[in-house]
Amino acid sequence: MGALTAVLNKRGADATETAITMLAALSPAKTDNFGVASPSKAKIESTVDALRNFHLNSDIIVGYRFSRILQSDRPQPTRLKRAAMVFDGRIYPSNDTSFHETLSAKPARDLVEVAGRFIRKSCGEYAFVLADVGRVIAGRDPMGARPLYYGENDELAALASEREALWRIGVNNDYSFPPGNVAVFSQTGSTLKPIKILSCSESKSITMEEAARKLEKLLRHSVKQRVSGLDEVAIGFSGGLDSCVVARLAQEAIGNVRLVHVSLEDQEETEHARNAADTLKLPIHVCVFKEEDVMKDLPMVLRIIEEDDPVKTAIGIPMYWAAWQASRMGFNIMLAGQGADELFGGYRRYVDDYLLRGEEAVSKRIFQDVTRLCENNLERDSKICGFHGVELRLPFATVEVAEFALSLPINLKIDPEKADARKLVLRKTAENMGLAESIVRRPKKAVQYATGVNKTLKKLAKRQGSVKAFLQKEFRKVLAEAT
Q1: Would you place residue 94 in the very low, low, confident or very high pLDDT band (cuts 50, 70, 90)?
Q2: In angstroms, what CA-CA distances link 273 with 238, 270, 391, 436?
Q3: How many CB atoms within 10 Å of residue 104?
Q4: Phi/psi of residue 56, each to 5°?
Q5: Exposed, middle or buried by CB within 10 Å (0-12, 13-18, 19+), for 176?
Q6: Average pLDDT over the chain, rounded to an integer
Q7: Cβ(384)–Cβ(161) under 8 Å?
Q8: What is the per-residue pLDDT across 325-344, written as a single tens digit (0 to 9) for each?
Q9: CA gap 273, 241 in Å, rounded
Q10: Alpha-carbon distance 262 to 453, whole Å?
Q11: Can you list the domains of the chain with their CATH numbers?
Q12: Omega of the bond prior to 77 within 30 degrees of 0, cis?
């Protein structure tokens, strides 16, 4: 696990200094070493400074900040026959090395084809970049579970796991790399090719019972993949439906599960989380924070998520605390329930859309939210957890689950006659799994409200007039300090 970078100098000049600048701009996360590579040479050192005297003499360079999660993880970049690669993420099953082996065996002219085939057939959460002769090739998993950004200016084309690495070299117009795509960058231009992307298909005819059985099978398989080979795992736990489903399935898969619940003081949701943990018969570690902790941790959260968006910040702070606590407890892998609300109609806005515009409108809204899940949630949470040396794995945010969820009729997700009747098929699945009625029927409460963080941000922002204005000011400070 780590963060990747890549740069191509369009004028053919040596890009070594630019590549080092990008690596140095990455957030100060837990790191074992740093590496850089051109299509023909590679170097790995314990610090960025140790790389500064190494000249690759190449206009194409990839870089990697490496943090070991599993003992089998190896430092990068990886040298291939006529290229070099950085790969950030995880493939399931975990012993699947076909991508590396296939790339090593193929001549350079076939790398784009091999990269596309890998995205089409693989299962996992990843982003990768190849330094080929005369071009950079990049790809991302179909859900966008690992962050990847790209951009260009007159002199450079660049990619990175963090936007700051692009900003630091003058690439200010950056974009989230589209999930399920392969891109090729060269001195003559760039191309993006969709390989495996989600589609908005017509709803299938299926009963609630059939859908719940199928969903349980998919989720059970997804969780099993993500805990395979582990002796224990942490669960980011709110006590709500999504995290309880993940916790139960993880418990059945490996048994040794620890629930991590974070909140500000005196929040009623904390007691509910304790009760849910008792019902699941799982140990829970509750970590309670004070209002002053919000202000203390806010600058680092803003730096990691690289935005001043109020919603992302209010969700990011509890995620920051949960990852920090999981790391303190000795866990380097954490499961969570992100994605369930978008997939199964968990937000009140879906009911409102239905009532105002009808079934077709809400179906389109759900599809748009799912396809933007990476930008709205996954990139933020992956970067936050990675900062603490924790690998985030999300059983709901898989292509298989997403494709199935998008094929379901709206009446299996929401009941427009009842505002709180949402995620119906997931509730039925939880019921079939034997979860308690208190969990199955409990209304959703978003984490930023349940933890009290949203209310605290409003208090902190009172003098600025709005949370948005307050966060903009704080974010400007963070950027100034970072440079």
Answers
A1: low
A2: 6, 5, 23, 13
A3: 15
A4: -85, -20
A5: middle
A6: 92
A7: no
A8: 999 999 999 999 999 999 99
A9: 11
A10: 11
A11: 2-194 (3.60.20.10), 208-476 (3.40.50.620)
A12: yes
